[in-house]
Design a protein that fits this description.
By secondary structure, the protein is of the alpha+beta class. It has 3 domains: 75 residues, Rna Polymerase Sigma Factor, Chain: A, CATH 1.10.1740; 61 residues, Winged helix-like DNA-binding domain superfamily/Winged helix DNA-binding domain (Arc Repressor Mutant, subunit A, Orthogonal Bundle), CATH 1.10.10.10; 117 residues, Nuclear Transport Factor 2, Chain: A, CATH 3.10.450. It has 12 helices and 7 strands. The termini are far apart. The relative contact order is 0.12.
Length: 296
């Protein structure tokens, strides 16, 4: 077997792992695939004869690619114009699709990815590589161009921010579905009090409708979110095809227009029996890239 073919086979054996690293780093499925492909290009041009741990070597390569991509985001319009939600991982209601299992290991919910979006690129890299994938700081330090101690500080700072912003969701998926179902029933029925009752007083709703100015927003508080939900349901409910789904492993819903075009993906975080976070992706271009098809 020639060396290039051997490298290609080894790379394919690590592709799922590399995509999982890139998704946590970038929060974007398409960008994660781009980062993995760039890693293959770099591998194919490199001398790997002295590489003892190919998976570790590839992990650092994809991390470097992702770090460059994160740093370049500062000039992107969607980063300047408001809410930008990570790409959701959408699976059928009856279980996580096999190709999504590695991406969702370690409970990578939308809420966690939203918190990671707020970190500086080097902080995100240090936290993801060390805390999620157990990469030692000796290997992280040269990627971020810092000392080992500084790399440890980056991860520690990120860890504190993640912990302070994190809420532990209810683990019972059936209970999550019950709460989300009550929310939808109240919204469709126009029952304001029932909506408020199912929402945490400090609930946060993030809506990403694309990069246009004013298209995306963050809404806080049970009464404000309930009013928005009623207004939204009144404007858009007729004709929509709505199906329950798993969104990053938690209860959620996907909706389509009557012509089959995706309309939105809604992810919910349920904690202590109340909805504490709602993430709505309604950017038509990004929804098309997710290849969502309504169930027959």
């Amino acid at each position: 077997m020639d060396e290039q073919r051997w490298l290609a086979e080894r790379f394919e054996a690590n592709r799922t792992h590399l995509r999982a690293v890139a998704y946590r780093m970038l929060g974007s499925l398409s960008e994660a695939d781009d980062a993995v492909q760039e890693s293959w290009l770099r591998l194919s041009r490199s001398d790997t004869h002295n590489v003892e741990n190919l998976q570790g070597w590839l992990t650092t390569i994809v991390a470097r690619v992702c770090l460059d991509m994160l740093r370049s985001r500062k000039s992107r319009s969607e980063e300047l114009l408001g809410v930008h939600l990570p790409d959701p991982i959408v699976s059928r209601e009856d279980g996580i699709d096999p190709e999504h299992e590695a991406l969702l290991a370690d409970s990578v919910g939308l809420a966690m990815l939203v918190v990671l979006e707020r970190l500086a690129p080097a902080e995100r890299l240090a936290f993801v590589l060390h805390d999620v994938f157990a990469v030692p700081f000796d290997e992280i330090a040269p990627i971020v161009g810092r000392s080992r101690a500084a790399a440890r500080q980056l991860a520690s700072r990120a860890r504190r921010r993640v912990a302070s912003a994190s809420v532990i969701p209810d683990a019972d998926l059936n209970r999550q579905r019950e709460v989300v179902g009550a929310f939808l029933a109240a919204a469709h029925g126009g029952d304001f009090d029932a909506l408020v009752a199912v929402l945490d007083p400090d609930v946060v709703l993030r809506a990403d409708r694309g990069p246009e100015p004013g298209a995306s927003r963050v809404i806080r508080g049970a009464q404000t979110v309930a009013k928005q939900a009623l207004a939204f349901s009144g404007r858009t409910a007729p004709g929509l095809i709505v199906r329950p789904a798993l969104v990053n492993g938690a209860a959620g819903i996907v909706s389509w227009r009557p012509d089959g075009q995706p309309f939105s993906v809604m992810g919910f975080m349920v904690a202590r029996g109340k909805i504490v976070e709602i993430d709505v992706l309604a950017d038509p271009e990004r929804l098309r890239r997710l290849d969502l098809k309504p169930a027959p």
